[in-house]
Design goal:
The structure is a single chain. The chain is an alpha+beta fold. The chain folds into five domains: 72 residues, Elongation Factor Tu (Ef-tu), domain 3, CATH 2.40.30; 62 residues, no CATH class; 167 residues, Galactose-binding domain-like (Jelly Rolls), CATH 2.60.120; 55 residues, no CATH class; 82 residues, no CATH class. Helices cover 12% and strands 29% of the residues. The protein has a seven-stranded antiparallel sheet with strand order 6-1-2-5-4-3-7. Strands 12, 14, 15, 18, 21 and 23 form a six-stranded antiparallel sheet that branches. Strands 13, 16, 17, 19, 20 and 22 form a six-stranded antiparallel sheet that branches. A hairpin with a 2-residue loop joins β4 and β5. α4 crosses α6. The longest helix is centred in the N-terminal third of the chain and has 24 residues. The protein starts with 7 loop residues before the first strand and ends with a helix.
Length: 621
């Protein structure tokens, strides 16, 4: 901290009194601080009487001075007091802070949905440990809820499986896999719905749920357990006698019958639901006893019926009642047959396919208003139909494995090829021919991966990573010459393909023919540390030019090529920069020579010979 120097002081030689003018000693100094007097000497402050008076020790040694310059300097006493206070705080709170670990320095979440990595979670965030009366965060679209936590959803919110309000629970297990669980707040639809997303909410599986107390089965027989539930509206009377025998109509097809008495005295409907898990007389219509189904499944409901009379000519109908969650249609009925009062036992049945977003059904017998009758039923069955293996059926199918006897090709829009021949299918799909013919694809880019081990077929092969020539991960152009000369050619043509430019060729013998110049980068901006070659003549004279016969590879036993050049190993001893030695770990890798690189040495040699010639000419004169 800066020293205090405001105002001036008056001091008297051999006196311990200091009198200030324009000073504030009390606020800016402490007993034990240092006083630097007008004489430049240092004294200890022993007492502070007021803002303008203090005492020092020893007594002032300098000459008596009025209105002199001074300074007050703090001493180590402040540091010790601070250290003592800090030590007391550490002793009091140190162990508590240490027990907090990294949480003691972590940043607290800024909202109840703050998912920033490393944040310290507050009570109530993401709906966890909410205090009484508090609400978790609302989400307007279940498809967007991918952060783990508990959320609330209102009646108008999107992509929830049931109408009304509800609670949405979200878990994230690994990578981008998300699990959602939805619980409706309405008691009448108190099912537990689940679904998953493998890609962090980009796509979702359908909501699924087994209805509370429902039965999930492929073949449900109601009769042996026989207990039908009833539901009446507005003062009607519906009674059921299960396992009815006394007084049953003759020729009954089943030993277990149900006698249903409808007594309709007003304009309301009454009904019986064929429910093996319900007790007779239960009139509430909730999810208990429903049959768990899935969209696209096909069911057949069958029973034998006998009605002993129908007042007013109206008939009893069989229906499949279901709840369609996402569209909020709470009374979606699939109509079945009507029961006739023909005085005879009659088999009745109807088949239906479960609509989209349906997961629970109730099979019911519905009596319209004004109907009073006794209805006897038996042999009640609910059966899920399985598609016959190998055959296609109508509608939505997910398990067709083959199609037999199909004479009309499936169109491309139906997932087929639109043709019964390979060539026609390829043409319709825009694919290249399997062999032969011409095809002119227009690609922005083409990628080749892997290798083709068998190159025995005549033609041009584009490969990757063949490890040819000692390279790895390389792109390979391979020509099987068949009965021709082989090799490769490159040329340019005009727009109309009427004229062609010069053709560059690479022959089967390994000769590259270039009709024009071959230019290499030699820009000064690409180079540094350039040193002129001055011993070119000496090096060139050591080079041994030779004529030789050459074979194409180390595996060949023939030497068909007669050429001129140098021996790479010999040249390496003279000009190593012109030679690329073979890979010692690859027995088939050859030494290589940069013949173009000989030119700078030849230029150097010519310059040396030129100088010697000029010197000889001068000596001759």
């Amino acid at each position: 901290m800066p020293w205090y120097k405001a105002g001036t002081v008056s001091v008297v030689q051999n006196s311990n009194a200091v009198t200030g003018a324009g000073t504030a000693f009390i606020a800016n100094s402490r007993v034990g601080d240092a006083f630097r007097g007008p004489d430049g000497g240092w004294y200890e402050i022993t007492n502070i009487a007021s803002n303008t008076a203090l005492s020092i020790a020893p007594n002032y040694q300098g000459a008596t001075t009025a209105a002199g310059i001074y300074a007050l300097a703090p001493m180590q006493g402040y540091v010790k007091d601070s250290a003592d206070a800090l030590r007391a705080l550490v002793n009091q709170f140190g162990a508590t802070l240490a027990a907090l670990g990294t949480a003691s320095t972590a940043t607290v979440t800024t909202s109840i949905t703050d998912a920033t990595l490393g944040r310290l979670l507050k009570v109530g965030d993401f709906g966890m440990a909410l205090p009484a009366g508090a609400q978790c965060s609302a989400v307007g679209d279940a498809n967007t809820a991918t952060i783990p936590g508990a959320y609330r959803m209102g009646a108008p919110d999107l992509n929830k499986p049931a109408a009304g309000q509800g609670q949405l629970l979200v878990w994230k297990s690994y990578a981008n896999y998300v699990l959602q669980m939805y619980v409706p707040a309405t008691a009448a639809i108190s099912n537990l719905w689940t679904r998953t997303s493998p890609d962090l909410g980009v796509t979702w599986t359908p909501w699924t749920t087994p209805a509370a107390g429902s039965t999930e089965t492929d073949n449900l027989v109601v009769d042996p357990n026989g207990a039908l539930g009833t539901g009446a509206f507005g003062g009607q009377v519906v009674s059921v006698v299960d396992r009815y025998s006394s007084g049953a109509p003759s020729l009954a097809p089943s030993k277990v019958l149900h006698k249903i008495t409808f007594t309709n005295t007003n304009n309301q409907y009454s009904q019986v639901y064929l429910d093996p898990k319900r007790a007779a007389g239960v009139t509430s219509l909730d999810n208990a006893g429903a049959i768990a189904v899935r969209p696209g499944e096909t069911y057949t409901v069958s029973f034998d019926g006998f009605a002993d009379g129908v007042v007013g000519g109206r008939r009893i109908g069989a229906i499949a009642h279901c709840y369609q969650a996402n569209t909020n249609v709470t009374n979606l009925n699939i109509a079945g047959p009507t029961v006739d009062a023909n005085g005879a036992w009659t088999p009745y049945s109807f088949t239906f396919t479960v609509p989209a977003d349906i997961y629970s059904i109730w099979v019911r017998l519905l009596a319209p208003s004004g109907v009073t009758t006794n209805l006897y039923v038996g042999n009640i069955r609910v059966e899920k139909l399985q598609p016959q293996p190998g055959l296609a059926t109508s509608g939505a199918n997910s398990n067709i494995t083959s199609l037999a006897g199909l004479t009309t090709p499936l169109s491309v829009s139906q997932g087929g090829t639109g043709s019964s021949t390979a060539s026609g299918a390829l043409a319709n799909l825009g694919a290249m021919p399997a062999a032969g013919g011409f095809y002119n694809p227009d690609f922005v880019s083409v990628k080749v991966g892997g290798t083709r081990p068998n190159l025995a077929a005549q033609g041009m092969h584009l490969l990757w990573n063949t490890a040819a020539g000692g390279l790895t991960g390389e792109g390979a152009f391979v020509c099987n010459k068949g009965g021709g000369t082989g090799g490769f050619s490159w040329r340019s043509i005009d727009t109309g393909n009427t004229t062609t430019g010069p053709t560059m060729t690479y022959t089967y013998a390994g000769v590259l023919n270039v009709p024009g110049a071959v230019n290499q980068n030699s820009d000064r901006r690409l180079k540094t540390n350039d040193i002129e070659i001055v011993d070119g003549l000496e090096r060139i004279l050591r080079v041994r030019p030779v004529e030789y016969d050459r074979r194409d590879s180390f595996d060949s036993e023939e030497y068909p090529h007669h050429e001129v050049g140098v021996i790479a190993q010999e040249l390496f001893e003279i000009a190593p920069l012109l030679v690329t030695p073979a890979n010692p770990d690859d027995a088939k890798d050859a030494w290589k020579v940069n013949y173009t690189g000989l030119i700078p040495y030849l230029v150097s040699a010519i310059k040396t010979l030129k100088a010697e010639i000029e010197e000889l000419k001068s000596a001759g004169k």
